[in-house]
Protein backbone atom coordinates (compact mmCIF):
# COMPACT_ATOMS: atom_id res chain seq x y z
CA UNK A 1 0.00 0.00 0.00
CA UNK A 2 1.24 3.48 -0.81
CA UNK A 3 0.71 6.10 1.89
CA UNK A 4 -0.08 9.73 1.23
CA UNK A 5 0.38 12.22 4.07
CA UNK A 6 -3.06 11.67 5.64
CA UNK A 7 -2.82 7.88 5.45
CA UNK A 8 0.69 7.97 6.88
CA UNK A 9 -0.44 10.02 9.88
CA UNK A 10 -3.39 7.68 10.44
CA UNK A 11 -1.18 4.57 10.26
CA UNK A 12 1.25 6.03 12.80
CA UNK A 13 -1.65 6.75 15.17
CA UNK A 14 -2.75 3.13 14.78
CA UNK A 15 0.73 1.93 15.77
CA UNK A 16 0.35 3.70 19.13
CA UNK A 17 4.05 4.49 19.48
CA UNK A 18 5.12 6.83 22.30
CA UNK A 19 5.96 10.16 20.66
CA UNK A 20 9.35 10.54 22.35
CA UNK A 21 10.46 6.99 21.47
CA UNK A 22 10.31 6.97 17.65
CA UNK A 23 11.18 8.93 14.53
CA UNK A 24 9.84 8.42 11.02
CA UNK A 25 12.72 8.06 8.55
CA UNK A 26 13.42 7.92 4.81
CA UNK A 27 10.49 8.15 2.37
CA UNK A 28 7.88 8.77 5.07
CA UNK A 29 9.89 11.74 6.35
CA UNK A 30 10.07 13.07 2.78
CA UNK A 31 6.27 12.88 2.59
CA UNK A 32 6.02 14.85 5.85
CA UNK A 33 8.37 17.50 4.43
CA UNK A 34 6.15 17.71 1.33
CA UNK A 35 8.92 16.44 -0.98
CA UNK A 36 6.99 13.34 -2.05
CA UNK A 37 3.31 12.68 -2.46
CA UNK A 38 3.48 9.03 -1.35
CA UNK A 39 5.71 6.36 0.14
CA UNK A 40 5.35 2.60 -0.24
CA UNK A 41 6.05 1.70 3.37
CA UNK A 42 6.77 3.25 6.74
CA UNK A 43 10.32 3.06 8.01
CA UNK A 44 10.42 3.87 11.70
CA UNK A 45 13.39 4.03 14.02
CA UNK A 46 12.59 3.40 17.67
CA UNK A 47 14.63 3.59 20.83
CA UNK A 48 16.23 0.31 21.95
CA UNK A 49 13.88 -0.20 24.92
CA UNK A 50 10.78 0.11 22.74
CA UNK A 51 12.37 -2.14 20.12
CA UNK A 52 12.85 -4.84 22.75
CA UNK A 53 9.24 -4.42 23.96
CA UNK A 54 8.03 -4.92 20.39
CA UNK A 55 10.15 -8.07 20.02
CA UNK A 56 8.85 -9.41 23.32
CA UNK A 57 5.25 -8.71 22.31
CA UNK A 58 4.81 -6.27 25.21
CA UNK A 59 3.93 -3.19 23.15
CA UNK A 60 0.21 -2.78 22.48
CA UNK A 61 -0.27 -1.65 18.93
CA UNK A 62 -3.59 -0.07 18.09
CA UNK A 63 -6.26 -1.64 15.93
CA UNK A 64 -4.00 -2.96 13.18
CA UNK A 65 -3.54 -6.53 12.14
CA UNK A 66 -0.03 -7.66 12.84
CA UNK A 67 1.87 -10.70 11.90
CA UNK A 68 4.61 -11.89 14.25
CA UNK A 69 7.77 -9.80 13.98
CA UNK A 70 9.80 -10.95 11.00
CA UNK A 71 13.50 -10.20 10.83
CA UNK A 72 14.61 -8.56 7.64
CA UNK A 73 18.23 -8.28 8.67
CA UNK A 74 20.42 -8.22 11.68
CA UNK A 75 18.93 -10.85 13.95
CA UNK A 76 19.27 -9.63 17.52
CA UNK A 77 22.03 -7.19 16.64
CA UNK A 78 21.90 -3.50 17.47
CA UNK A 79 20.74 -2.39 14.01
CA UNK A 80 18.17 -5.11 13.42
CA UNK A 81 15.16 -4.34 11.26
CA UNK A 82 11.85 -6.10 11.77
CA UNK A 83 8.69 -6.05 9.71
CA UNK A 84 5.61 -6.00 11.91
CA UNK A 85 3.06 -5.55 9.14
CA UNK A 86 3.30 -5.77 5.38
CA UNK A 87 3.94 -2.05 5.19
CA UNK A 88 5.79 -1.17 8.42
CA UNK A 89 9.46 -1.73 9.11
CA UNK A 90 10.92 -0.88 12.50
CA UNK A 91 14.59 -0.53 13.30
CA UNK A 92 16.45 0.06 16.51
CA UNK A 93 18.16 3.25 15.42
CA UNK A 94 19.28 4.21 18.87
CA UNK A 95 18.57 7.19 21.05
CA UNK A 96 20.90 9.54 19.17
CA UNK A 97 18.79 9.51 16.00
CA UNK A 98 15.63 10.12 17.99
CA UNK A 99 17.10 13.00 20.01
CA UNK A 100 18.77 14.46 16.90
CA UNK A 101 15.50 14.56 14.91
CA UNK A 102 13.37 17.18 16.62
CA UNK A 103 11.31 17.94 13.50
CA UNK A 104 7.60 17.46 14.12
CA UNK A 105 4.82 18.03 11.61
CA UNK A 106 1.14 17.34 12.33
CA UNK A 107 2.10 15.41 15.47
CA UNK A 108 4.57 13.15 13.63
CA UNK A 109 8.25 13.16 14.60
CA UNK A 110 10.44 12.73 11.56
CA UNK A 111 13.98 13.17 10.27
CA UNK A 112 15.30 16.57 9.29
CA UNK A 113 16.17 17.19 5.64
CA UNK A 114 19.87 16.84 6.41
CA UNK A 115 19.38 13.55 8.26
CA UNK A 116 17.33 12.10 5.39
CA UNK A 117 20.02 13.22 2.96
CA UNK A 118 22.78 11.58 5.02
CA UNK A 119 20.76 8.37 5.36
CA UNK A 120 20.04 8.12 1.64
CA UNK A 121 23.58 9.13 0.68
CA UNK A 122 24.96 6.35 2.89
CA UNK A 123 22.67 3.73 1.34
CA UNK A 124 23.20 5.15 -2.16
CA UNK A 125 20.80 2.74 -3.83
CA UNK A 126 19.59 3.46 -7.38
CA UNK A 127 16.15 4.38 -6.01
CA UNK A 128 17.77 6.95 -3.69
CA UNK A 129 19.47 8.92 -6.49
CA UNK A 130 16.33 10.88 -7.44
CA UNK A 131 15.58 11.56 -3.76
CA UNK A 132 19.11 12.90 -3.21
CA UNK A 133 18.62 15.50 -5.94
CA UNK A 134 15.26 16.56 -4.48
CA UNK A 135 16.79 16.76 -1.00
CA UNK A 136 19.75 18.85 -2.20
CA UNK A 137 17.35 21.37 -3.73
CA UNK A 138 15.19 21.44 -0.58
CA UNK A 139 18.21 21.96 1.68
CA UNK A 140 19.49 24.77 -0.55
CA UNK A 141 16.03 26.40 -0.46
CA UNK A 142 15.90 26.03 3.33
CA UNK A 143 19.36 27.63 3.67
CA UNK A 144 18.26 30.62 1.58
CA UNK A 145 15.10 31.12 3.63
CA UNK A 146 16.65 30.50 7.06
CA UNK A 147 20.43 30.78 6.87
CA UNK A 148 22.16 29.09 9.76
CA UNK A 149 24.32 31.59 11.68
CA UNK A 150 27.55 29.71 11.07
CA UNK A 151 26.96 29.88 7.30
CA UNK A 152 26.21 33.61 7.07
CA UNK A 153 28.59 35.44 4.82
CA UNK A 154 31.08 37.61 6.67
CA UNK A 155 32.60 40.73 5.22
CA UNK A 156 36.37 40.95 5.30
CA UNK A 157 38.56 43.92 4.44
CA UNK A 158 42.25 43.23 3.80
CA UNK A 159 42.14 40.01 5.78
CA UNK A 160 40.45 41.55 8.81
CA UNK A 161 36.82 41.25 9.63
CA UNK A 162 35.03 44.48 8.93
CA UNK A 163 33.18 46.16 11.74
CA UNK A 164 29.52 46.86 11.15
CA UNK A 165 28.94 50.29 9.78
CA UNK A 166 27.02 52.86 11.73
CA UNK A 167 24.03 54.41 10.02
CA UNK A 168 24.95 57.63 8.21
CA UNK A 169 24.67 60.74 10.30
CA UNK A 170 22.26 63.38 9.28
CA UNK A 171 23.85 66.77 8.61
CA UNK A 172 23.84 69.07 11.62
CA UNK A 173 21.02 71.53 11.64
CA UNK A 174 21.90 75.22 11.73
CA UNK A 175 19.94 77.90 13.38
CA UNK A 176 19.14 80.66 11.02
CA UNK A 177 17.89 83.86 12.47
CA UNK A 178 15.72 86.04 10.39
Labels describing this entry:
178 residues; alpha+beta; Beta Polymerase, domain 2; 5-stranded mixed β-sheet; two-stranded antiparallel sheet; 6 helices; 9 strands
Give a structural overview.
The termini are far apart. Mean pLDDT is 79; it is low at 151-162. This protein is 35% helix and 19% strand. With 178 residues, the protein is of the alpha+beta class. Helix 5 (113-123) packs antiparallel against helix 6 (126-145). The chain has a domain at 5-112: 2-Layer Sandwich (Beta Polymerase, domain 2). The longest helix has 20 residues, at 126-145. It has 6 helices and 9 strands. Strand 6 and strand 7 form a beta hairpin. It has a 5-stranded mixed sheet. It has a two-stranded antiparallel sheet with strand order 6-7.
Secondary-structure element order, N to C: HEHEHEEEHEEHHEE
Please give the radius of gyration in angstroms. Answer: 24 Å
Number of helices: 6
Residue-averaged pLDDT, rounded?
A: 79
Query: How helix-rich are the residues, as a percent range?
Result: 25-40%
- Main sheet overview: 5 strands, mixed
What is the CATH topology of one domain?
Answer: Beta Polymerase, domain 2
Beta-strand content estimate: 15-25%
- Overall shape: it is elongated
- What is the strand arrangement across the widest sheet? 1-2-5-4-3
The helix/strand class is alpha+beta
Distance between the termini: 88 Å
Amino acid sequence: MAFNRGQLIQRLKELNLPKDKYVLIAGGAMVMHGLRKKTNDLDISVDPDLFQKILDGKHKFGAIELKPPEYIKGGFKKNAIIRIANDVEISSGGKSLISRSPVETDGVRHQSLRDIYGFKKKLNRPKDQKDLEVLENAIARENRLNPRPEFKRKEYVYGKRATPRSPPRSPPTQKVEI
